[in-house]
Amino acid sequence: MFERAIVRHLSGLSAFDFGLFAETLLFYKETLLLINAPTSFLLLKHIGIDGLKRMVEDGHCRLSYQSKELGVVTDSHNGLPIYAVVEATRTFQDTVREGTLSQERLIADALVRAGFGSVEASKAVRQLLDIAPNENRRFSGRDLPVLQMAMQDLLNRPYTQIAAKISIESRFPMFRVPDHWTFVIHETAGPRGDRLFFVVETNYDFDYLRKLCPWCGEISTATVLNDILETRGDLVFSAKQMAEPVTSPLRSRMMQVKFDLLSKIREKSHDDIRLFNHVMLKTNNIRGAVNSGKKNFSDVIEIIENAGKFKGWLTGVDPEVGLLTEYYKAITKTSWIERLPTKCSRFTAMTGAGVLLDVFATGGVATAVGLGLAVADTFLIDRLFASWRPNHFVENDLVRFVQ
């Protein structure tokens, strides 16, 4: 416990919690403070360059400077507001600006406005940047795909729905978001092809919230989006540094939700695999075949090499529908099953998906003829099996593997 912590900058000029920083320095063996331009200004104003240099030189903390961070830009397309995630510079108005900005000039100008002399301010900033090397987004020799990670967060509907609620209720502690309020994000085309745009489908009443608490600060769709992005930033840098993220209660709650959802996804995947094994592999399973010694890893490697299309199909399975149902839909879509005679359709309705899956696992053309299909329908079956479907891999490779 208390080995290493990372304190990442918080948005806004008044948001840095010096008390939390002091507490972290006291309790953790190693503290990394990740700063940006607004945080640098606050540190120089309240601690001073001599105090910061002393803490770094004595080994009480490390400083690292983040010149670029995730931000949301707003645009319009066909009269509708659209948004994009960009890497940009955080300014002193709690906004982001794209392009190259002089960090030294940005901080020094703010210090001068706060009463520092211009020479004093420039010298302090240069000394600060000397002890705060630039923080990159590389890990194990590779650039971390932070923008892609952020977009995955935004397009994760269960997560964004809960995250939006946390964003609002953390700012308005006495308010509870109604169950019928929704916050859903969709990808869309935009005016520029060099970035991913998205629209937000929401009925959140931000006008009502602003009237409810005028002193709580600006609150809008962009505010919620920024909270989600900042939470992703906390996760990325804490993972990279192998450090506990010391962050705001709001972002801590969002991180907890993300981990809870990941756990639930794994539980759902486990249940889907178990049911799929029971129905399609006749209670046999890959795990048991390997652990019992019936199959070795040469066999595993061989089947994995044939599983490319199957694994690609699996990534598109709707988790809310389930693996077995999606498998049934995939192998029967636009096939002869849709053209079953009325008598056969009644038989299908009564016996259910289990029998149909059994038909696909064992029957082929002979089973189809046995069910009373015409010769023309057998032609459809030939066409069905001519194009790849997930049952091709399951029946030809997977079933034989576990037998």
The coarse silhouette is globular
Instruction: Work out the strand percent.
Output: 5-15%
The biggest beta sheet, please?
Answer: 5 strands, antiparallel
How many H/I helices? Answer: 19
Proportion of helical residues = 55-70%
Which regions are unreliable across 5 or more consecutive residues at pLDDT < 50?
A: 335-386
Structural class: alpha/beta
Rg calc: 28 Å
Average pLDDT metric: 77
Terminus-to-terminus distance: 48 Å
Pattern of helices and strands: EHEHHEEEEHHEEHHEEHHEHHHHHHHHHH
Multimer state = single chain
Number of strands: 11
Please describe what this structure looks like.
It is built from 19 helices and eleven strands. Strands 4, 5, 6, 9 and 10 form a five-stranded antiparallel sheet that branches. Strands 3-2-1-11 form a four-stranded parallel sheet, with helices on both faces. Mean pLDDT is 77; it is low at 335-386. With 403 residues, the protein is an alpha/beta fold. β4 and β5 (80-90) form a beta hairpin.
